[in-house]
Design brief:
Blueprint (H helix, E strand, L loop, with lengths): L5 H14 L4 H13 L17 E2 L5 E5 L7 H4 L7 H12 L20 E5 L12 H17 L5 E5 H14 L16 E4 L3 E6 L4 H5 L5 H20 L2
Parallel strand pairs: 2-3, 2-4, 4-6
Antiparallel strand pairs: 1-3, 5-6
């Protein structure tokens, strides 16, 4: 058998995500949303399938969100694309040098991630934006696979408490050693993981959090500036 490269393995994993039908409730919901649409997007063709992660397979920054938005990623076919959370995220990534532009409206908008890979704990838009425990469990192998393939990651930014917990479960299932102390979620918390990896926690850039001021643009940009400094420090170490 001819050995495959990490890039080819990542493409296979992404294709498996798109083909997934493990969760009947999510399949029904994502397809219903894609069929019924909303008025402002009624002339668009919705993606209506699971979303693979995207970015550079050689990335040193991994971002883990919760799940696609019904009329965001589920419509456009790309993580954090076409919704308010994505607008907030990509402005912060652009400011920190992890994206070539601050906008993410559709898959052909010219966006390119730099040294960054974005994924989520659940790959289908869930009703009420609330996946069940069984749906998290069914989707976890995809995140485990990404952790194993993204060998150069030095910083992981998790968005929200749920993303934080989901990543740590996937980290353990990937066979990685747990942190020295049980981690607790709080915004800007740093957790040192074995293998010279730092976990950075952030509030999720949901409209509720950003409109109420729980998460400000300055707070969010600070997360990615810190990620950049940590990555630069890891590069300088022998």
């Amino acid at each position: 058998m001819i050995p495959t490269s990490p890039v080819e393995e990542m493409r296979r994993l992404q294709a498996a995500v798109v083909d997934c039908r493990r969760c009947p409730r999510l399949v029904v919901f994502r397809q219903q949303v894609a069929r019924d649409k909303v008025r402002r997007y009624r002339d668009e063709t919705y993606w209506g399938k699971p979303l693979p992660g995207f970015g550079e397979p050689t990335a040193t920054l991994l971002i883990v969100g919760l799940a696609p938005a019904a009329h965001g990623g589920n419509r456009t076919g790309r993580m954090f694309t076409g919704d308010r959370s994505g607008e907030f995220l990509f402005r912060a990534l652009y400011a920190a040098g992890f994206a070539n532009q601050p906008d993410s409206s559709h898959p052909d908008d010219g966006l390119r991630l730099r040294n960054c890979y974005i994924t989520a704990a659940v790959r289908c838009a869930p009703p009420g934006n609330k996946p069940t425990a069984a749906e998290f469990e069914a989707c976890r192998p995809f995140l485990v696979g990404e952790i194993l393939l993204l060998e150069r990651v030095r910083v992981v930014v998790t968005l929200g408490r749920i993303g934080f917990d989901a990543f740590l479960k996937a980290w353990a299932e990937a066979g990685r050693k747990p942190p020295a102390r049980p981690p607790r979620f709080s915004h800007a918390a740093e957790v040192k993981l074995p293998g010279d990896v730092t976990l950075l926690a952030s509030y999720h850039p949901s409209q509720r959090n950003t409109q109420t001021g729980l998460l400000t643009a300055g707070m969010f940009s600070g997360i990615f500036r810190r990620a950049s400094r940590l990555i630069s420090g890891a590069r300088r170490r022998p």
